[in-house]
Fold this protein.
Amino acid sequence: MKKKELKYYTYKLDLKVLNILSIILFVIVGGIIFFIERHDNYVLELDVIGFIILIFVWLIVHELLHAVGFMIFKEVKKTNLTFGMFLEKGIFYVMCKQNIGRRVILTSLCFPIVIIGFITLIIGMSINSFMLVYLSIMNIVASIGDIVMIIYFIKAPRDIIYLDLDDPTSFTVVSNEDLSYINVVGIEMVEKGKYDNKMKAKDRRRLIISKWSYILLIFLAILFMIRIVGGKML
């Protein structure tokens, strides 16, 4: 019997669709929490500046948890992880620039949603912490790209190969099966063809930060200094 050839399928995340889905998700999750708790006894522990800074830190923790999700598997090398930040596009990311399996990518995608999404949401609701509840909801909403990818990989065959190239808004899947049947809202297949094992990421930097991200980071640092000088500690 002739062995099926491997084919690659490259998918692009539709950011406009994902933004719409994130708004819908925010309304749904926020609405559920509001009707459950009514927020009568909730306390906002920080001022506005402190809260903005904490949201930024929370998003960084989100990406670090993705990295932990990768690194719990021995086959993933730390040197193949790339962190990136494009704040002008609202993008934080970590990419694994080596071939990995379905179990690895699913674990990485689920880590921040579960740990600083659902678990912290339950804790925040139990101790009446508006800050923790809101941060948890924001994390779940910001995970909309992860959520649609989770749905994709649940539908995908178990033996697929996943790889990141150099575009943080796309991913490539390799399989000997036809994956054209997999349709997920927010994900569009933009290319497919015969797989060549020479397909590799060209940019091997460990950290990628855009020019505008540096500017926004400086602005956040100034806000933090203003807050410290004002005598208000986190």
Observations:
- The radius of gyration is 20 Å.
- The mean pLDDT is 88.
- Helices lie at 15-37, 48-71, 102-126, 130-142, 144-155, 211-229.
- DSSP finds six helices and eight strands in the chain.
